[in-house]
Amino acid sequence: MAFSPFRFRRFSTRLLALVLGLLFATLAVTYLLVSHANLSNALAHSEANLRVGARIYDDAIRRQIAYLTRTAGLMTGDYAIRQVLQAEHPDIRTLSSALQSYTQRVGAPVIAFFDTEGQLLANSDAEMENENVGPFRYLIDRASKADQPEDSGISYLNGKLHVLVVVPLYAPYPNIAGWFGLAFPIDHAFAQKIKDTTGIEVTFASRRGVQATTLSAPDSGIVSQLVARGPGQAGGQVSIVELSDDRYVTLFKPEDLLGEDPVTVVLERPLKAELAAAHELEQRLLYISLVALAVATLLALGLARGVSDPVRRLAGHTKLIAGGDYVTRLQLDRADELGHLADSINAMSTGLAERDQVRDLLDKNVSPEVAAQLMRDGATLGGEEREVTILFADLRGFTTLSERLAPPELLALLNRYLDRMSAEIERHGGVIDKFIGDAIMALFGAPVAQGDSAGRALAAARGMEAALAGLNAELAAEGRPPLAIGVGINTARVVAGNIGSHRRLNYSVIGDGVNVAARLQALTRTPEYRTNIITSAATLAAAGPGAFATRPLGAVNVKGRVGAVEIHAVE
Amino acid sequence: MKRLLFAIGIAIPALLQAASAVGFRVADAKGAPVADAVVSLTPLDGPARLEPPTAPVEIMQRGQEFSPYVTPLVAGTRVSFPNRDTVQHHVYSLSKPKKFELPLYAGEAKEAIVFDQPGIVALGCNIHDWMSAYVVVLATPWFAQTGADGRAAITGIPPGRYRAEAWHPRLGKVESRELDVSGPPAASVDFTLALKPDRRLRRVHSAVPGGYK
Ligand SMILES: [Cu+2]
């Protein structure tokens, strides 16, 4: 048989493996499905969150622009600025310091003032030169050309990302006397503000690098590289980015700048935070699975024991039966298949015991060989012709003996004699065909063919003489008279088979040869022959010349038979 | 000040004989000394004779700030506002005791301002929000201003009953109590002021980066 890893010597192991295997597979698949669903859910949830974050960011920018626009509108109507500008040659330093005062008043870090041509007149930030305020001038130009009251946008101011607003100073409306430019930086504080509102990590990155971020330096570096890699990331698509501490669901949102390469607003949420609740669920599922496995193990072991124990008992019981014990009964007390099996085995024991009894009976009534053949072939009325040596033995003077002994004593003596004779016959391979009163009919070569059946019969006859001598010695010691026998042996072809009615059958042989043997036995009574054993020439021929010492007695006629039979005395 | 006291001495020789000094100690609720507090003694027995100085008192603008921050003076004193900055200023007051404005100017102001009504006058600049100063106009010649140690002393006070007062820019209401100045020098008068948080605007230099508000 080919080797298979799933062959188990014990049923319980097999059941355990099956139950645990199935349960484990189910639990594993469940766990994986739940895990996968959780991840998809977390991703979807994160994406929705990030999109809300993007809208909040847009809104923050819009609000800032609106605030700056309103503020600038108030400033243009302020008394002080008009005072400053009223002068023939407005004092630029005073104007600058006034703008500086405004930056504090309105919280806009950068306030600049431009003339109608877009030339920078004054600036709250002393470091900002005319060439650094390009985006303001771009907006003033755009607003002037479009005849808009104001304009806004995002760009770099002094190399840093800013939201910019330009608003005209009317003197009076709609005459424009100059332009205010207000700006506030898109810096780390701004990114942090968005994060505080949304819980989302915010990074502003462009080809120039990271402009502002809530991330750590290495993480923002990773994000910046992704942005620098190309516009492929700028599709407003959500992806997962591996940062130093966790995987982040990331939304890349492009933001156009005034006359510059766009900046990308990168919004990120750690997947871990989103999965926290799911993780708890998974943890719980894991615990439940482990408990289920443990319980299943115990149940499977119990179930396996419930099956394997009775099976082991059944196996032990069949061994008893094989050993010949048909008396012991198996008590399982079960209503299931195993209980039925035990009942069947008990029924089998009963059947076997009955058959054994029948066989015992056969053994006593017929020879073991005949019994064996009957058991094997069944009792049939069939017959066959075969060569058989027939031995007849008769107790001489039995009739006289029967008159002298009481019936029980007589029977005991007879059985004792028959026992010894039977033993000799069987010892030489003969089969007792039947007892006829004190006479014995035995067959050699039937029902089982055997070599040298004639020789065996002759040897048996001699053995019977010796055995009788032994019995006589015992009888003498008991003070009884000795017994004598006469044996006739003939070898002939006869018909062998079961002879009798349907109700009662006997294995036996029929034919002339049988009569001859009986006749030869009777002839031993002839005093002139002076022998106890007479055999036919046919037997001697079958036994082979010189095997036994014999004395020819001439030929005799046998009743009912044509021609004489040559007989010999066995010495 | 000495001149002022000298004038009083000439005017009331009887009181001069018994003139004495009062020490003040001004602290906040936590016990920390309060500077720039103005303490004064106003006579309760009859109005004091006021003699404002003939020369104007100066409150200048320098480094886009007023200096000094607090100026106590006797009613009727003239104050000049010289601008020592390169940028122009536009000084104004909207306080009841004295409303005025000095339109955008550089260098010396065109005129000196007379503060004739007692009370607190808050000064500001139309251009620079952070510029702030106070003029404390008093109806008594006996006053002083605390130093960094929170201490101040008023000398040459004639015997009599006075109302002792303390004021500070971060104090909503004037603190006052009655004080009898006679005989041996009294122990120092202690004022514990419940000051409001400092809400004074500070000039933020452009070098400090602004941020998202
Ligand atoms: Cu000013």
How would you describe what is shown here?
Chain A has 571 residues and is of the alpha+beta class. Chain A is built from 14 helices and 18 strands. Chain A folds into four domains: 109 residues, PAS domain (Beta-Lactamase), CATH 3.30.450.20; 75 residues, 2-Layer Sandwich (Beta-Lactamase), CATH 3.30.450; 60 residues, Orthogonal Bundle (Helicase, Ruva Protein, domain 3); 193 residues, Nucleotide cyclase, GGDEF domain (Alpha-Beta Plaits), CATH 3.30.70. In chain A, helix 7 packs parallel to helix 8, helix 11 packs antiparallel against helix 12 and helix 12 crosses helix 14. The model of chain A has no long low-confidence stretch (mean pLDDT 84). Chain B has one domain: Immunoglobulin-like. By secondary structure, chain B is mainly beta. At the A-B interface, helix 2, helix 3 and helix 5 of A face loops of B. The structure holds copper (II) ion. The site of copper (II) ion has 6 residues of chain B, from loops.
Give a brief description.
The complex is a heterodimer of chains A (571) and B (213). Helices cover 51% and strands 25% of the residues of chain A.
In the CATH classification, which architecture of the largest domain in chain A applies? 2-Layer Sandwich
Overall mean pLDDT of chain B stands at: 84
Question: What are the distinct ligands in this entry?
Answer: copper (II) ion
Q: Total helix count of chain A?
A: 14
How is the secondary structure organized here?
The complex is a heterodimer of chains A (571) and B (213).
Chain A: H1 11-76, H2 79-86, H3 92-106, E1 110-114, E2 120-123, H4 134-146, E3 151-157, E4 160-170, E5 176-185, H5 188-198, E6 201-206, E7 209-213, H6 217-228, E8 238-242, E9 247-257, E10 260-270, H7 271-322, H8 337-365, H9 368-377, E11 383-396, H10 398-404, H11 407-427, E12 431-436, E13 439-444, H12 453-478, E14 484-500, E15 505-510, H13 512-523, E16 533-536, H14 537-543, E17 550-557, E18 564-570
Parallel strand pairs in A: 14-16
Antiparallel strand pairs in A: 1-2, 1-5, 3-4, 4-5, 6-7, 6-10, 8-9, 9-10, 11-13, 11-14, 12-13, 14-15, 16-18, 17-18
Helix pairs in contact in A: 1-7, 7-8, 8-9, 11-12, 12-14
Chain B: H1 2-11, H2 13-17, E1 20-28, E2 38-43, E3 57-58, E4 60-62, E5 65-67, E6 70-74, E7 77-80, E8 89-95, E9 98-105, E10 113-115, E11 119-125, E12 132-138, E13 142-145, E14 151-157, E15 160-167, E16 175-181, E17 189-193
Parallel strand pairs in B: 1-17, 3-7, 6-12
Antiparallel strand pairs in B: 1-14, 2-13, 2-15, 4-5, 7-10, 8-9, 8-11, 11-12, 15-16
The structure holds copper (II) ion.
